[in-house]
Amino acid sequence: MSTGRKILAGVLVAILVGLGIVAYLLTPDRARQPLADVAGTDPELLRPRYESFPTVGIAEPTGWAANEVPTAAEGLAVTRFADGLDHPRTLYVMPNGDVLTALTNRPPSTGPSGIEGMIAKFLFRKAGAGGASANKIALLRDTDGDGRAEQKTLLSHPALSSPSGIAWKDGTLYVANHDALLAFAYEEGATALTGTPKKLMDLPPGGNHWMRNIALSPDGERIFIAVGSASNVGERGMEVEQGRAAIWDYNLETGQQRQYASGLRNPNGLAFSPWSGELWTTVNERDMLGSDLVPDYLTNVPIGAQYGWPWVWWRNNFDDRVDHPTPVGFNPDYIRLPEYALGPHVAALGLAFTGNGSTLGDRFGSGAVIARHGSWNREPKAGYDVVYVAFDGRGNPTGKPVPVLTGFLADDGKTTRGRPTWVAFARDGALLVTDDTAGIVWRVTAPGGKPSAAIDKITGDRMPPQRELRGGTATFGDDFARNPVP
Q1: Is residue 379 part of a domain?
Q2: From its phi and psi, is residue 86 left (phi > 0), alpha (psi between -120 and 50) or beta?
Q3: Strands 415-416 and 60-61
Q4: What are 250-278's pLDDT values in tens digits?
Q5: How many domains does one find in the chain?
Q6: N or C: more exposed end of the chain, with fewer CB within 10 A?
Q7: Is residue 460 assigned to a domain?
Q8: Residue 193: CA atoms inside 13 Å, Cβ hemisphere, count?
Q9: In a domain, 138, yes or no
Q10: Is 3 inside a domain boundary?
Q11: pTM for this one?
Q12: Residue 121: domain span
């Protein structure tokens, strides 16, 4: 063989090897265990399978036919509460029964740039999230009690910029834009936002996770704000993550703000436990560790809690991709274990507790409902549903997620009719679910069912301080510090 032919053969072999390597890297990582095995209070966690390129599996939205509805769990019925909406996401139910939903999308020019940004924009468009933000709040009003909103009013204001979180108290409507927490003067029943809102605090703008959900504390004195990270695992540097991957606490009386909890990659739903009054949240965990990791989760959030992102996941698993130094005060021994796994890449968003008058029947009367928006980077796809997590009498999650609404994802997994996004209970106890890509708010009830009973709050006296070391000889009286030690 001539030298020229040998060189050509070598080049061809190198090309084939290169193509083989590229094909291998681009081959989707398929899950090796059922989704249910990675859900619940004790998920089965396999070893990470690090990916150079993410598994991409996007179900393209097709919408619902006029006579189609999602599949409800046995004993439940689902109808359209409202439709024709422009990408509805969060929900808030006013005391008078008016339903507010944010018509919103990511702000322009956020997220990665360059080739990565181009790919991200393509994926967002394919998933039905590539449009411009409407920057409005829709007021939906069921005037005759038939379970459908006859009146739909759009509340617009120049100050709205990718709004998401909504809350109301005593004539003030609180709205979280992607970059600020605002307060509008707003009376119940009003059909317009007027005047100049007051900016309560700045928020880290945009980023990979741009939604900023909020929740008023049960006593109405504080607002909690969920702020997601700007990246997967801090690959753009930790400077851009300042103030992110955290839940913030804003004091309405003093105007003081503090970081309430941290290490939460992308917290979304916020709700207070009817048993204990504790704050709970849903969190989207990290990507590119394979289709079996890491599970999104539901957890309580005590003040000062640290959940490990980006250095640690699921309490004691260190992410080898992260080489940033840990911040001052970061102690791996004190990283909290999430309470309940919801499955990897399901994109858990909206959260609401049942009970206290909800009308989903006894089977779903004591727990939480969660909207799982659906995966874009898992094979097979996961989520695209609304699930129920039962809680015991002490306010702890139990068992596995139980489907409440399914049928969004097509049987072949290639397309989806819609994507459930947020959940809230209407004043009549019906469950409302936003479906952002379809522009619909669904209404779910148990026909003929009675409102669920009130949840019994956990009460009791505090334990007295221990003043004795049992098993030893030392005892502690009031003057122990003054006594000489023998």
Answers
A1: no
A2: beta
A3: parallel
A4: 999 999 999 999 999 999 999 999 999 99
A5: 1
A6: C
A7: yes
A8: 24
A9: yes
A10: no
A11: 0.89
A12: 101-346+354-365+389-401+447-482
